[in-house]
Write a structure and sequence with these properties.
Layout (H helix, E strand, L loop, with lengths): L1 E9 L2 E7 L4 E5 L6 H11 L15 E9 L5 H11 L9 E9 L4 E5 L2 E3 L1 H9 L2 E4 L3 H4 L3 H11 L3 H27 L1 H20 L5 H13 L1 H17 L4 H18 L4 H27 L4 H20 L7 H18 L2 H43 L6 E13 L2 E10 L7 E2 H4 L2 H17 L5 E5 L7 H14 L4 E5 L3 H4 L4 E10 L2 E8 L2 H13 L5 H13 L1
Helix pairs in contact: 6-14, 7-13, 8-12, 9-11, 10-11, 14-16, 16-17, 19-20
């Protein structure tokens, strides 16, 4: 759960460190006080996009840190994820710190447990920690794709959905290749003939890996054979065969120094150096003699090498590549011809498509069965909640609309149908629900689907818009019940919801040196009475509104 949220120089917040508790926490405040600032800041810590306009005026950067306590049910999975991503595990995996720094140039930096992280890594971590239901969630609910995903997530089917999507993509690609093979005709045949001719010519040439470098070296040796021969012989003469050769001169000098070293040991190192030089000169002369004995300067071989170089060079120019790339071209040509031949095997492609269709349908039918069961369960629960939200007799049905050829998400499309009152026929959610009804249905679905959520912290950002009175009291009670199994944070403008909170945070703003600053305070009992009274009666708070506020708090 979220333990601490720390802000520095964010929008109109100078510096703030806010501690959170388990259970149901409400955040209230006058319009414009900055209630949404806290959620925006938390969103940044969870990997949302940053903007330099979020930096407090006159400052160079904003910092947001969110410290989470890891629940026992999450410990192993989060430890595994942190280890896989290469992040340090602190406090035996009991805490996780997410941090975001936004610079004035628009850039931002992210950190997980003090180590640099990418935004995608921040989002992956955040997805396991917090689930945010925005104030426009009911608008998203009108989209059929969102309805399907909500059902799948509620039923914990996302892994199966992903596998079905993978099989469908594989099937789609195979169908496309089959269609291309059936329609290609003469174009593919001409390409196949060209590749066959190219492969035959390259195979006959048979270029070898590293051959071009080796043959260039051999050509340089053969073409400069006379120069190499005379040069080596000249060096041998100077070293060992001439009357005043280096070897004989060095031998005399070395013997003389050895004799002198007997009189003065300080000359021993010089004597040994001269002996070593004499040995190396002798080895160099012997090595040169052995080299000349093995030296093959056959003119016929030079002609062969030049002919081979010309053949490789011509082929490289013909195929518009480098000579040393010809072995790769040979392999690539063979592979392309094999692939083209395989793709032209229409019967084999048809068999492949058939097998993939069977695999896809088998898994997609399993998904359909699980969806049908989950849809019945979810519709019953939402229908029951609708009765509590002043929609007596109303009901939600979840329809599965078959798709003729299936799709990436399975064999059906999901549509939420609602009947607003008893006796009415369920119709598409977008067609029958008024703004208030839609908000209540959305809230009911959010609360019920969240009960099965493994995410420990759930945030509701003014999802109670468009409702009031007794319905608002019911909403608050539902959120309080949900707070028994999750950490709930709710931004609300309804006193009936605020009164149900286990904890109450008030957001306010003040003026300091001609600048507006936002502040958050934890409210005690007496302060809660004043705040709920303000929410009931507006700017003018009377004894009556205070009494009503106390009654709401006592009832909760």
């Amino acid at each position: 759960m979220l333990q601490t949220l720390a802000l520095r120089d964010f929008v109109i917040v100078n510096q703030l460190e806010l501690d959170f508790s388990s259970g149901f926490t409400v955040l209230t405040g006058e319009t414009g006080a900055g209630k949404s600032i806290l959620l925006d800041a938390l969103g940044l810590a969870l990997g949302e996009r940053a903007d330099s306009s979020q930096i407090r005026e006159g400052c160079t950067r904003a910092e947001i840190s969110a410290l989470f306590r890891i629940e026992s049910t999450q410990t192993e999975s989060l430890k595994h994820w942190l280890d896989k991503q290469g992040f340090p595990i602190e406090d035996e995996g009991k805490n996780l710190l997410l941090k975001r720094i936004v610079e004035s140039n628009g850039r931002s930096r992210a950190f997980i447990n003090g180590s640099v992280a990418t935004l995608s890594q921040l989002r992956e971590a955040g997805d396991q920690l917090v689930d945010i239901h925005g104030q426009h969630a009911h608008q998203l609910l009108l989209k059929s794709g969102a309805q399907r995903e909500l059902l799948d997530r509620h039923a914990n089917l996302m892994e199966l959905v992903g596998e079905v999507a993978r099989l469908f993509k594989t099937l789609h690609d195979s169908r496309r290749r089959l269609e291309q093979a059936e329609n290609a005709g003469q174009d593919i045949e001409r390409e196949r003939e060209r590749l066959e001719w190219q492969l035959e010519e390259l195979s006959e040439l048979s270029p070898q890996e590293g051959e071009w470098v080796a043959i260039q070296s051999e050509h340089a040796r053969l073409a400069n054979g006379a120069k190499i021969l005379s040069g080596c012989q000249e060096v041998i003469d100077v070293l060992s065969e001439a009357d005043n050769s280096v070897e004989s001169t060095l031998s005399k000098v070395s013997a003389n120094m050895t004799a002198l070293a007997e009189h003065d040991p300080a000359l021993s190192d010089i004597s040994q150096a001269l002996e070593s030089a004499q040995i190396q000169i002798d080895e160099a002369a012997h090595s040169l003699n052995r080299y000349l004995q093995k030296l093959d300067l056959d003119p016929a071989r030079l002609s062969e090498v030049e002919e081979r170089m010309q053949a490789l060079h011509s082929a490289a120019r013909k195929y518009r590549t480098e000579a040393d790339a010809l072995p790769n071209l040979l392999n690539e040509t063979a592979e392309r011809l094999d692939a083209l031949t395989a793709s032209q095997n229409i019967e084999a492609l048809r068999e492949k498509v058939k097998a993939e269709e069977i695999a896809y349908l088998k898994l997609a039918k399993q998904l359909s069965q699980k969806r049908a069961k989950a849809a019945l369960d979810l519709s019953k629960q939402v229908t029951a909640a609708m009765q509590e939200l002043s929609m007596v007799g109303g009901r939600l049905e979840i329809a599965s609309i078959p798709l003729a050829d299936g799709g990436a998400h399975g064999l059906e499309q999901i549509e939420f149908l609602v009947a607003g009152h008893a006796g009415s026929t369920p119709r598409s959610l977008a067609k029958v629900a008024s703004g208030g009804e839609l908000a209540r249905i959305s809230l009911a679905i959010s609360v019920i689907t969240s009960k099965a959520s493994f995410t420990p912290t759930l945030i509701f950002d003014e999802v109670d818009a468009g409702i009031g009175g007794a319905v608002a009291e019911t909403v608050g009670r539902l959120l309080r019940q949900l707070g028994e199994s999750h950490q709930i944070l709710c931004v609300t403008h309804l006193p009936q919801v605020a009164a149900q909170g286990n904890h109450h945070l008030k957001v306010s703003k003040s003026q300091s040196e001609d600048k507006t600053l936002s502040q958050v305070s934890q409210l005690g009992r007496a302060e809660r009475v004043e705040e709920v009274a303000r929410m009931l009666g507006g700017a003018t708070i009377t004894d009556t509104t205070r009494r009503h506020a106390r009654e709401l708090l006592e009832q909760s």
